[in-house]
Amino acid sequence: MENYTVTISRQFGSLGRPIGMKLAELLGIEFYDRDIIEEAARQMDLPLAEASNLEEKERTGLLYMRYPLGKSNIEVKERLYEVENSIIRNWASRKSCVIVGRCSDYILRNEKNHINFFIYAPYDQRVKNCIEDLGFKKEDAMSMIDEVDKARNRYHKRYTHFKQEDLELNQVVIDSSVLGVDGTAEIMADFVKKRFHIN
């Protein structure tokens, strides 16, 4: 069987990350999420917190202090995307894997053995997930959903010109509130196995 890659885009609070982890476990393949930004930060010799901040914000005082002679934060941000792009392509070519976020849906869109899922959930359920699974207070959960969704969509649109939920990039759109983490991952695993003819 040739290598294949499953990418996951998701709304904040839809439990896309734990679903992705469970999916990788069910399929017996690698799971990548934070590993990508950690490796990119290592290659660029950036503190992890600084690299993570660059994925979501256009300006950071830390970068201006670090590069006082004119290496703009925009240049570093563009370089970060290029490095992450290279890491995603490299890791996806080595072995079958599940990759969450970081425009991987777009980066791998033309690969032969690739499928992308977009995971969403009703707003009230996402608030509930943030409270019960992430330990947020209700007000903080609502604020985080708004802020993170906007940040992810800005990032995705900046580099792909598509919204995360755009049907042109997503083969399967699924509401995680219907079956929960395990049930959603099981449905996705069945779909992947049929798509790639895995026994």
UniProtKB/TrEMBL annotation:
Pfam families: Cytidylate_kin2. GO terms for molecular function: kinase activity. SUPFAM superfamilies: P-loop containing nucleoside triphosphate hydrolases. Keywords: Kinase, Transferase. InterPro entries: P-loop_NTPase (IPR027417). This is Cytidylate kinase-like family protein. It comes from Bilifractor porci.
